[in-house]
Amino acid sequence: MNSFFQDNLQEITEPISKEKTLSIYELIVSGGLGGQIIIGILFVLLIVALYIYFERFFAIKAASKEDKNFMNQIKEAILKGKLEAARDLCKSKNTPTARLIDKGISRIGKPLDDINTAIETAGKLEIYQLEKNVSVLATISGAAPMIGFLGTVIGMILAIHEIANAGGQIDIKMLSDGLYTAMTTTVAGLIVGIIAYVTYNHLVVRTNKVVYQMEAKSVEFLDLLNEPV
Prior knowledge:
It is found in: Cell membrane; Membrane. It is a multi-pass membrane protein. By secondary structure, the protein is mainly alpha-helical. Helices cover about 85% and strands about 0% of the residues. The radius of gyration is 31 Å and the shape is rod-shaped. The N and C termini lie far apart (about 110 Å).
């Protein structure tokens, strides 16, 4: 009797022990050549997105460093007529804000509108430098899911092709390559797109913070020039 139950228990547990598991590598390999090419493209886009993010993140972080005594030192130097000392101080800081103030100091003696125009032009150049390559992240965030969906369409075409060639006898193993291609590329495209989208928005927020600092210091500098002597 015990032998009977043991035999039945073994028959029940055997299918469970033979349950198939797949690693990420096996999923990619099982997707066929089309799926592997698309996964490869998405992997390259992911590397590009991460490189741009970290390169811009550290550049923007360095640009956002602010010395609270900077404007007080500039004001003191200008009021004493030490314009060269003020410009040297700006050059020593090497930040977008300092470069704007340096541009303004170099125009002292000219009409205030000319000084303001020079600062605005320099500010546009600084913003351009801060946003360099950031738009690529936005492109990747939109393109990656579309590339993934392209893999989905290719996978479904492969699956339908196998059904057409099966002569009405559908075997799930015949469809596996197409289905793996469809699912893995979709997931990969969404993952890359989400990462690129999040990193893009994070950089935009950080860049805006630096832009606000530049605007505030520029206004403070122009107000200093407007003060009565």
